[in-house]
Amino acid sequence: MDDKRNRRRWTRQALDPPELGYLLAEDRGYKAGTTLIDTPVALYVDLINKSQGGAALKAPRSIETATTVSLLTYCDNEKLWFTFQGDVKWVEKEPDSSNNYVVGLEISRQEKPGRHLSPAVECPGIPNPSDFEFIHQTNLITSTPRKALCSLLNSLTYREVKAGDRFIRQGDSGDHLFVIQDGACVVYVEKDQETYTVGRLARGDVVGEMAMLTGEPRSAHVEAETDLKLWGLSRSKFDVIADENPDLRSFLTELVADRFSGRKLTAERTIGKYIITDIIGRGGYSIVYKGVHSGLNMPVAIKMMRHNLAMNPKFLNKFQREAKIIANLNHENIIKVYDIENLFRTVFIIMELGEGETIKELIQREKQIPYPRIVNVLIQSCRALTYAHQQGIVHRDVKPANMFIKSGDRVKLLDFGLSCTTGSENPEFSGTVAFMSPEEIEGEIVDHRSDIYALGITTYEMLTGQRPFPEDDLLSLIEMHLEQNIPDPAAVRSDIPEALRQFVLKACARKPDDRYQSIDEVLGVLLPLAEELGLTPDLRTNHKKGLTTLHLIYEEGQRLALKQLLEDFNAKARKIGVELKAADFPEI
Question: What pLDDT does residue 32 have?
């Protein structure tokens, strides 16, 4: 009784994050009638709290009370396992979970820490603690969220392959990936009765993942060059874990990105009619590659959506619907979308490849861009936005990184992947916070004025070489967008033309009604400024011209009033770059 009373007084330490544990039902010293409910008798668990004489852990299955167990807990700092002996005292189903149980242990003995158990008490099947040091450093585990770690470790299965054996065959269905713990293997492709070696994989490499991702037939043979020790993961088990832990989908993105970034050409680097050649850049939503059309030898850019987004059905449907709309956009200042491919459990957008640099890169190189060039960039960007807005599309991610300047100073607006229709409320996937309007941040109605706000922030950065609000604290940045007016750019660059200064301050007004109400209003400010700065007509109107004919039928006594009307109309038309031609016709 005193012993129980003392145990109740022991302080319990909650563990956040949990410690990793390895639970093993001993094969000696059992009490009669006690055992684990199912085999295997070893499993990884999360240790959620502990005291001097007890512990509580989260396990993926129920364990019969009075079972005697060994519990190993891993200390990441010391790279050591601490071993305890004890008995299961109680088991409870974890609330709101159909898979997990909370298990209470009474600890009776602690052994000296070591790197792993002796082989006599290790258990085959899932990785033993002696295997963990290797597995812990693989991309598979480093990409796994902590809360999914035990589920993943419990899903791995061990396999040995003898030298010379082929364990993956080209054309077979692929439902497993393998992590190589020891040994090496050769990857080769059979084509036109010829054999082509495309790679050699060794310790730590992942093999077979592409077919597992797609469910398509294996694209190559894999043969053991030496004896191999492998850890396998099935597609069905991975999907279950990833459904419960969506962040694990990022692992798929990194696997695919790593395979595409390699220098050797393999079958997996073909995306429909296109072949990936190099990686261009990475972003929060996508990875972009340089590629070529295999039949036309035409260079293209290939944007791969990250799997955590592409495998979200709601986002995927939204993205594909909007991508098809954007593919129909045809404007000289908007990057062209050629094709959309659904492969490797993600989406690839095939786009025009531009030779040049982004405005972000231009700012980094020049720090403060000359005023004529800034105005030229703005006018062309406005024309792209005018066209998009006329189609009912709000870009929602206008920023220097999404504005590309080609040779000849032709500007292309990039990345409509986050666009939405005018009037959308509370979009689920936001753009870059540094350029987001207050109404976007608060999830309110979004229209073309949000793009005008982002264009104003972009202009501030082009003028000053820096962004208006510091970004070292995300919450503070959001609060500044909501509560503070944009700083005056003239405080950083004192000789800014007044029209450009006023444009920035008005475009970035916190209330949408206080901003310019259309891109046409913005052009009304920028086009006269372009003339003052000496921009040539060709530079300002890189446009195919259109012609609209308007017939005005009037009485002779209305000629004077008509003349005044035409003068007023012509003045407004010139502000937005429209040229008015009038001619008199004989009486009708």
Answer: 42
Asked whether residue 348 falls in the same domain as residue 425, the answer is no
Summarised one tens digit per residue, pLDDT across range 440-471 is: 888 888 888 999 999 999 999 999 988 888 87
Considering only 153-162, 206-215, 372-381, which range has the smallest mean pLDDT?
Answer: 206-215
Read off the pLDDT of each residue in 90-108 and give the average, rounded to a whole number.
83
**Residue 447 annotated as catalytic:** no
Angle between helices 519-532 and 559-575 (to 10 degrees): 80
Q: How far is residue 309's CA from residue 316's CA, in Å, rounded to a whole number?
A: 7
In whole angstroms, give the CA distance from residue 257 to residue 267.
Answer: 14
Mean pLDDT for the chain overall: 79
- Lookup: tokens for 234: 């099935």
Residue-number span of the structural domain to which 169 is assigned = 139-257
Q: What are phi and psi of 143, to 5 degrees?
A: -90, 0
Tokens 């007004």 belong to 509
Best CA proximity match to 473, nearest among 435, 434, 443:
434
Judge if 248 and 282 occupy the same domain: no
Classified as helix, coil or strand, 513 is helix
Residue 180 lies in a domain: yes
Q: How far is CA 448 from CA 201, 254, 284, 440, 559, in A?
A: 51, 35, 24, 12, 39
The whole-number pLDDT of residue 517 equals 92
Residues 547, 557: contact at Cβ < 8 Å? no
CA distances from 307 to 224, 244, 316, 567 (A): 30, 15, 10, 57
Q: Is the pLDDT of residue 386 over 90?
A: yes
- Model confidence at 64: pLDDT above 90: no
Last residue of a domain, one of 298, 317, 352: 352
Lowest mean pLDDT among 261-270, 434-443, 473-482, 514-523: 261-270
Q: Please give the Cα distance from 81 to 72 (Å, whole number).
A: 6
Same domain? For 457 and 339 the reply is: no
Alpha carbons within 13 A on the beta-carbon side of 236: 0
Residues 347, 400 share a domain: no
Segments in 497-588 forming alpha helices (H)? 498-507, 519-532, 537-540, 559-575
| Res 37: pLDDT | 41
Q: Is the distance from CB of 377 to CB of 361 less than 8 angstroms?
A: no
Q: Mean pLDDT across the stretch 293-310?
A: 81
Q: Of 165, 182, 339, 397, which one is the catalytic site residue?
A: 397
- Taking only Cα atoms into account, the Rg of the chain, rounded to an integer number of angstroms, comes to 32
